[in-house]
Amino acid sequence: MEVAPAGVKVQDLGYRWGSCGKGDLLYFHWKTILLPARIAEYVIVHEMAHLHEPHHTAEFWRRVERALPDYELRKDWLSRNGSSVEGV
Question: Can you give the pTM of this predicted structure?
Answer without folding.
Answer: 0.93
